[in-house]
Write a structure and sequence with these properties.
single chain, 3 helices
Length: 103
């Protein structure tokens, strides 16, 4: 569902850019779903989505270039953000499992 909302971008942005965006959106959608499932908080995923969109504004889409410093920096920043989120989610799952085992 999260990915499908980005299909409309094909009419506004270059095909390669949107294709990569769709692949990334699918992965982020799964990650955000897992975060919501374990935290039961929409505010967490909304804030993460806002942060991701802020980073995405620095990725040039007119002349998307894999060798561009700003493109590489934005993609690395986004990947780093999501790596941190995955670590947070794994810690959260571990804490919840520990609480269930104790209680």
């Amino acid at each position: 569902m999260f990915m499908c909302a980005h299909v409309a971008n094909y009419s506004y942005f270059p095909m390669l850019y949107v294709t990569l965006q769709l692949i990334f959106a699918m992965q982020v959608g799964i990650l955000y779903s897992l975060i919501y499932y374990h935290t039961r908080s929409l505010s967490n995923t909304i804030l993460l989505h806002i942060g991701n969109n802020i980073i995405a504004t620095f990725i040039p889409f007119d002349d998307f270039d894999y060798t561009s410093y700003s493109s590489i920096l934005a993609v690395i920043s986004s990947l780093l953000l999501h790596f941190i989120l995955i670590k947070y989610l794994l810690k959260l799952i571990s804490n919840n499992s520990d609480k269930k085992a104790q209680g």
